[in-house]
Amino acid sequence: MLRKKCLAAMSAAIMLFCSCAEMTDENHTQQEVLPDTATQKQEQQTTTTQKYTSVTEQQAAEANAEPQTETRVHFLCAGDNLIHDNIYMEALELGGGEKYDFSSMYDEVRPYIQKADIAVLNQETLVNSAFPASTYPVFSTPVEDGDAVTDLGFNVISMSNNHVLDYGSEGLISSLDYWDSKDVVHYGAYRDEEDSENIRIKEVNGITFAFLGYMEHTNGNSLASDGPGKVVYLKEEDVIERQIKKADEMADVVVVSCHFGTEIKHELNEQQIDMAPKLAEWGADLIIGTQAHCTSTCGTIDRSDGSKAFCYYGLGNFFHTMWDAISAVGYMGDLDIVKDPNGVVRFENIKAIPVVSHFEDTGAEFWTNCKVYPYSKYTDELISRSGAIGMSREAMEDCLSCIPDEYLSIE
In the prediction, which pLDDT does 67 show? Predict the structure, then answer.
């Protein structure tokens, strides 16, 4: 499915005579230019014989060695972890009023996250210690929620979303400080310009991943040009193209998170339709879309060189307490990424596994029993207790209808 990445394992000698045929970008092609003299040509021929003799010996040794096998990474990505007041107030109650305890709220989806080698979460709200907990329209989330999702198994955090500047540079830096204290890769928001050019790389099972994140907007908030903090907007296409092409040279798989889409609309908007193919052409292999707070389609994108990328255009919400049924259903992207002995990477077993955010309106100060469930375990009895307006099996099935049958996986 993906373009073959040129392997550095070839010796420098062979590179004088062989080019990486799979590469299509000019930046991937190197040519050796030798002075055209008879003496140097004779030396070149002698050296060539020595090089090919060495290759033959190496090939013979490899033939007697254990055969190389494919390597595999199980990859998962989840949508918006959108921590409303109902969630953190109940977490405080669960913690006995002295601390926040979010852990049980994620219990039902724990097995899906923990079986992944790489699990990416779009953390929609600022997890930080600089500001007290707050809810829509300006979010601040206790660090205990970050502890809960990392304990759950999320090891890559996207901060590319419209709420990342809700508390300006101070909130952003405090959140970066928190994620720096955890054993995770985080991306999509940065300390400064230099940090934004430091492409995040993670290697698992011999497969390298690069992570980049961009957002459509930040709710009208911006950073001072001479102050701390840096984000990159989707309109900055020259920066995005340059960064993706750089990442493509560094990693087997380039993952790009895009906070785009029209809120509470399943249908793709003009920006999604226009931008996703550009990202793929520049080198993005897997595109993770968030922002709409409801499900959107997913599928392959053809590149001009004949290879393909894959795009989850809109995962919807992972966990939240938005009040309408259309927002209640999201899905997790789930797939295997396989690299063969020749360095060719492909995607297998691509899935969209739906999840449902549950809460109950019992007339108390805040909604209770907040929890995220896999759709397969969301019973009719839970539907009857849901506080979401218009919640029904039919409403949920309508949310899932935008996901192609070949990827939809109820499990």
Answer: 60
Dist CA 211 CA 119 (whole Å): 12
Tokens of residue 11, six digits: 């010796």
Strands (E) across 27-143 are located at 71-81, 118-123
Contacts for 394 with CB less than 8 Å, ≥ 6 apart: none
Is the Cβ–Cβ distance between 209 and 116 less than 8 Å? no
Structure tokens at 336: 């295997």
Query: What is the number of other CB atoms lying within 10 angstroms of the CB of residue 261?
Result: 25
Integer Cα distance of 407 and 310 in angstroms:
12
pLDDT digits (tens, 9 = 90+) for 351-390: 999 999 999 999 999 999 999 999 999 999 999 999 999 9
For residue 64, the cross-strand partners are: none
φ, ψ of residue 47 to 5 degrees: the values are: -65, -40
The DSSP code sequence of 323-352 is: SBHHHHEEEEEEEEEEE-TTS-EEEEEEEE
Q: Which residues contact 112 (CB under 8 A, 6 or more apart)?
A: 76, 332, 334, 353, 374
Q: Could you tell me the residue ranges of all domains in the chain? A: 12-64, 72-400
CA distance 29 to 6: 10
CA nearest to 204, candidates 24, 312, 31, 75: 75
How many beta carbons lie within 10 A of that of residue 267, not counting itself? 14
17/8 Cα distance (integer angstroms):
15
366 closest CA partner among 328, 319, 321: 321
Instruction: Tell me the sheet residues that pair with 186.
Output: 157
User: 132, exposed or middle or buried, with CB in 10 Å at 0-12, 13-18, 19+?
Assistant: exposed
Q: Which amino acid is at 89?
A: M
Separation CA 367–CA 373 (nearest Å): 17
Contact predicate 113/154, CB 8 Å: yes
Neighbour tally for 364: CB within 10 Å: 12
| Fold (topology level) of 72-400 | Purple Acid Phosphatase; chain A, domain 2 (3.60.21)
pTM: 0.85
- Residue-wise pLDDT for 204-238, tens only, equals 999 999 999 999 999 999 999 899 999 999 999 99
By DSSP bridging, strand 118-123 and strand 207-215 are unpaired
